[in-house]
Amino acid sequence: LEGARESYRRVLELEPDNAVALYNLGLVEFDLRRFDSSYDYLDRFLKVHQDEGDMGQRARTYLEEIRLKRKSGS
After folding, report:
1. pTM of the entire structure?
2. Over residues 5-34, mean pLDDT
């Protein structure tokens, strides 16, 4: 996960609005339990890409899960 994380960060240095990198980095950060970063990347993904498809739905699901974790203090 750390290698993927670094690779996606490099992509975003070159293309800050790369939707695939934002989405995947959000998922990697979630798996690493870095929920604030995950939230930021997934939120940026939705703002940039406004995906109504499968990726957009999954991003919204992860964002909601992070909101719930924040509420419960997890």
Report:
1. 0.90
2. 97
